[in-house]
Design brief:
The chain has 345 residues and is of the alpha/beta class. It folds into three domains: 53 residues, Orthogonal Bundle (434 Repressor (Amino-terminal Domain)), CATH 1.10.260; 125 residues, 3-Layer(aba) Sandwich (Rossmann fold); 127 residues, Response regulator (Rossmann fold, 3-Layer(aba) Sandwich). It has 13 helices and twelve strands. The strands form two sheets. It has a six-stranded parallel sheet with strand order 2-1-3-4-5-11, sandwiched between helices. α7 links the parallel β3 and β4. α5 crosses α13. The longest helix is centred in the last third of the chain and has 18 residues. The protein is elongated, with a radius of gyration of 24 Å. Keywords: DNA-binding, Transcription, Transcription regulation. Pfam families: LacI (PF00356), Peripla_BP_3 (PF13377). One of its GO terms (molecular function) is DNA binding. InterPro entries: HTH_LacI (IPR000843), LacI/GalR-like_sensor (IPR046335), Lambda_DNA-bd_dom_sf (IPR010982), Peripla_BP_I (IPR028082).
Length: 345
């Protein structure tokens, strides 16, 4: 005969309702009791009926996690941490990739709406207005975007950009470039504001180049503009853009860091394996994944009655091989025109 919830309760020495809460809301059950119930369930071979639970509780115990580009090495550590934390809380995660397309993002949200209890949006490309409207129908947590009325997990990219500018200016660089990300990116805008202010305070010139595709190709394509503005130090939107820029510069006879210093953002495996190893701003991706799921489950429990929460996570500069001191009296990199040609914007 099939093992029932009553069998588990009897074996664990608890009430049936405690077994039910262990599987539907594990955070509401004492850790020792929860472990005893789970051990009894495993020993008896009990598996909760997910469909029945959904009908009883009104919840699917599924969450959606939508990212801009799953091929970007920034996202997998966040996804893995979010899934692990959700599993501890008795939830499963459906992961979807928008390929940087806001229309695809909206369609995915609408598709998932009836299958999940809430959605984590990571680096969304939709407008704030669209996200606010969709958030009226389903609990949301947004990562790396501020949206009115929604909980958010922010990585302090502004501080990271400041650290990057200070690092480059401490090495003697006075002509800097910032390679921005895709149009409408919250992260890119925060970097631009912070880097512009810090460069001005340090007496350095900063040329903003973009928008750019947040890929290696985006960095490679930007190489001529970087050379055109005669920068000696560059901060890229992410590690992929930085790696692409290094490739584009090498193809034009400019070596990093001898002829140009380059700083990435994210601290991905790709940057650590690149040659030269990439100086970069480390982003707390795993912490962001766990925090986002935690805030989303709070929103699900509140059922629209809780206040939006915002958590900001610190970033830190990791110095490796792609930055070096500017050479005394250094001329513009080889191949650069005499007049800067890339306006800020």
């Amino acid at each position: 005969m099939a093992v029932t919830i009553r069998d588990v309760a009897q074996a664990a020495g608890v009430h049936v309702s405690t077994v039910s809460r262990t599987f539907s809301a594990p955070h509401m059950v004492n850790a020792d009791t929860r472990e005893r119930v789970l051990a009894a369930a495993t020993q008896l071979g009990y598996r909760p009926n997910q469909a029945a639970r959904a009908l009883t509780t009104g919840r699917t115990h599924n969450l959606g996690l939508i990212v801009a580009d799953i091929a970007n090495p920034f996202f997998p550590p966040l996804i893995k941490a979010a899934q692990a934390y959700a599993r501890e809380r008795g939830y499963h995660v459906f992961v979807a990739d928008t390929d940087e397309d806001p229309q695809e993002e909206q369609e995915l949200i609408q598709t998932l709406a009836k299958q999940v209890d809430g959605v984590v949006l990571v680096s969304p490309r939709l407008t704030n207005h669209s996200i606010e409207r969709l958030g009226m129908e389903l609990p949301f947590v947004v990562v790396n975007r501020r949206v009115k009325g929604l909980s958010a997990v922010l990585m302090d990219v502004g501080s990271g950009a400041v650290q990057a500018v200070r690092h480059l200016t401490s090495l003697g660089h006075r002509r800097l470039a910032l390679l921005g990300g895709p149009r409408g990116s919250w992260t890119s805008e925060q970097m631009r504001k912070a880097a512009t202010a810090e460069a001005a305070a340090a007496g350095a010139e900063l040329t903003v180049i973009g928008p750019n595709s947040p890929t290696e190709r985006g960095g490679t394509d930007a190489a001529p503009e970087v050379l055109g503005c005669r920068a000696t130090g560059v901060i890229a939107y992410n590690d992929l853009v930085a790696i692409g820029l290094i490739e584009g510069l090498a193809a034009r006879g400019v070596e990093v860091p001898a002829g140009m210093s380059v700083v990435g953002v994210d601290d991905t495996v790709a940057g650590r394996l690149n040659r030269p190893k990439l100086t970069t701003v480390a982003m707390p991706t795993a912490a962001a994944g766990r925090t986002a799921v935690d805030l989303l489950l709070q929103a699900v429990d509140a059922r629209g009655n809780g206040a939006a929460a915002q958590t900001t996570l610190e970033t830190s500069l990791v110095v490796r091989e792609s930055t070096a001191a500017v050479r005394p009296g250094e001329n513009p990199p080889a191949g650069a025109p005499e007049i800067a040609g890339a306006p800020a914007g």
